[in-house]
Amino acid sequence: MIKYVHTNVIARDPQRLVAFYKKALGCKSIGEERDLRGEWLDHMTGIPGAHLVGEHLLLPGYGADHPTFEVFSYDEMEAAGDPRANRCGFGHLAFEVDDVEQTLALMKSEGGGQLGEVVRAEYEDGRRAVFVYATDCEGNVVELQSWQ
Hints:
Number of helices: 3
Strand content: 35-45%
Radius of gyration: 17 Å
Oligomer: single chain
């Protein structure tokens, strides 16, 4: 069996980032907070004395059998580079929303930002969409999309 279970982001300020995703993008607490340490975590992460705290959030559009979005923070962390759409590794989280511009404005009001322009695209099969690359309050790239 293979089943997708979660995406994890390491946050400088996990409480602020959790609040951002709840308010700006409709994620919800599900009572799964973590305060983890121990030999098993040291071995798994390769970090001696590893300690992490955080919370699993329910992503919008999912019910009881759901993947989660983990927002965690380690006691000691490595610095991240500037947000870029073309940086190697995981690129972005994507959320389908009713109104890209309205959601982008809400994200900005909560400390997020915008990488590129809001664009409208039409595909060869006639589908149309509105897209933008934004950032959360810690600079992680978030794609907003709305299909018409």
